[in-house]
């Protein structure tokens, strides 16, 4: 694997390989092996043009647990605010010896531009681009679902027949898009639930069922209910019901929570708008996988970095081109 830009084109075998390697990484963490020497001498750059808590910190933790050096770059406070281009920023980081660039950008397609530009030779990992994709979020969500479903026997398994309902601001959600493609590849049945104005126009080409009524979706007894963040900052011209109306019709409130089966997973990628798309009772309930998703994010991102960089390292070793 040279880059990880999206789940739409990720094959089933590559996806399962990432999830299986993430299981190995989780094993080392559970045995309190805090650090593996695998990526010693390699440099991972976190290049974040948009805010992040979970993704940036977990990529940093993942790289450090593999003994890589980490450079954190936030656009705020950098020369980007003086107008420096993506090309010049990327080439500056390349000159500092980046082996992998983890990029979050407000423009859909920015990671692909970077990967195909020839500006850098580093592997590129998409950490969220506009409304396009957030592939490592979908991988950590799939990892969480697979573990809940298959437990210790997860390796090699997919999500065949798992019923996953994704609720909320699908229009602006890169998490929803990455999940739809990956879950479909892994054999899950996906239902989207949203106000009509927050459903993308091209959804007819997606491998999903679309509902507008959350209560109907809950009555169908999903295995996982993934609540999306309402992205008020991206709402623009899209019609959004009042927050009160949204919470009443599409929010996971305590009453809806009670109607879910005891083993239905309540998922949320974070950050959460408590009281809007999800109540605190749901977010903090026994069904909630929110913190499990965060913890699994480190194992999944370790797996992605390992597959991008360690494979390349051994290829270099066999061709004798690794000076390090
Ligand atoms: N889920 C997610 O991408 O969270 P952050 O924006 O905090 O990285």
TrEMBL record:
The keyword Ligase does not apply. Keywords: Pyrimidine biosynthesis, Transferase. This is Aspartate carbamoyltransferase. Catalyzes the condensation of carbamoyl phosphate and aspartate to form carbamoyl aspartate and inorganic phosphate, the committed step in the de novo pyrimidine nucleotide biosynthesis pathway. PANTHER family: ASPARTATE CARBAMOYLTRANSFERASE, ORNITHINE CARBAMOYLTRANSFERASE, MITOCHONDRIAL. GO terms for molecular function: amino acid binding; aspartate carbamoyltransferase activity. L-aspartate binds at residues 82, 174, 229. Residues 2-146 form the Aspartate/ornithine carbamoyltransferase carbamoyl-P binding domain. Residues 160-308 form the Aspartate/ornithine carbamoyltransferase Asp/Orn-binding domain. Pathway: Pyrimidine metabolism; UMP biosynthesis via de novo pathway; (S)-dihydroorotate from bicarbonate: step 2/3. It comes from Microbacterium pygmaeum. HAMAP family: Asp_carb_tr. GO terms for biological process: 'de novo' pyrimidine nucleobase biosynthetic process; 'de novo' UMP biosynthetic process; amino acid metabolic process. It comes from the Bacteria. It is an enzyme of class 2 (transferase). It catalyses: carbamoyl phosphate + L-aspartate = N-carbamoyl-L-aspartate + phosphate + H(+). The gene is pyrB. Pfam families: OTCace, OTCace_N.
């Amino acid at each position: 694997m040279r880059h990880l830009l999206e789940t739409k084109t990720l094959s089933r075998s590559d996806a399962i390989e990432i999830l299986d390697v993430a299981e190995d990484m989780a094993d080392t963490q559970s045995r309190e092996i805090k650090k593996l020497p695998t990526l010693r001498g390699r440099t991972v750059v976190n290049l974040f043009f948009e805010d992040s808590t979970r993704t940036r910190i977990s990529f940093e933790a993942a790289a450090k647990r593999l003994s890589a050096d980490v450079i954190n770059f936030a656009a705020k406070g950098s020369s980007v605010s003086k107008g420096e281009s993506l090309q010049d920023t990327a080439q500056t980081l390349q000159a500092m010896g980046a082996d992998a660039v983890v990029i979050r950008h407000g423009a859909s397609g920015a990671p692909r531009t970077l990967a195909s530009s020839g500006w850098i030779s580093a592997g590129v990992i998409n950490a969220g681009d506009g409304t396009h994709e957030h592939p490592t979020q979908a991988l950590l969500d799939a990892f969480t679902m697979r573990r809940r479903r298959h437990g210790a026997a997860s390796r090699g398994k997919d999500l065949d027949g798992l019923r996953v309902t994704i609720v909320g601001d699908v229009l602006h959600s890169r998490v929803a898009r990455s999940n739809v493609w990956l879950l479909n590849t892994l054999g899950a049945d996906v239902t989207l639930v949203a106000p009509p104005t927050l459903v993308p126009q091209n959804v007819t080409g997606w491998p999903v069922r679309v509902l507008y009524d959350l209560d109907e979706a809950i009555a169908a007894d999903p295995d996982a209910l993934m609540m999306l963040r309402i992205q008020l900052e991206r709402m623009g011209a899209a019609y959004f019901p009042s927050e009160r109306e949204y919470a009443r019709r599409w929010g996971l409130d305590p009453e809806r929570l009670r109607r879910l089966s005891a083993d239905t997973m309540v998922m949320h990628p974070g950050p959460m708008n408590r009281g809007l798309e999800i109540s605190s009772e749901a977010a903090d309930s026994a069904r909630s996988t929110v913190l499990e998703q965060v913890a699994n994010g480190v194992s999944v991102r370790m797996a992605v970095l390992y597959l991008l960089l360690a494979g390349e390292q051994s290829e270099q070793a066999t061709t004798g081109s690794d000076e390090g």
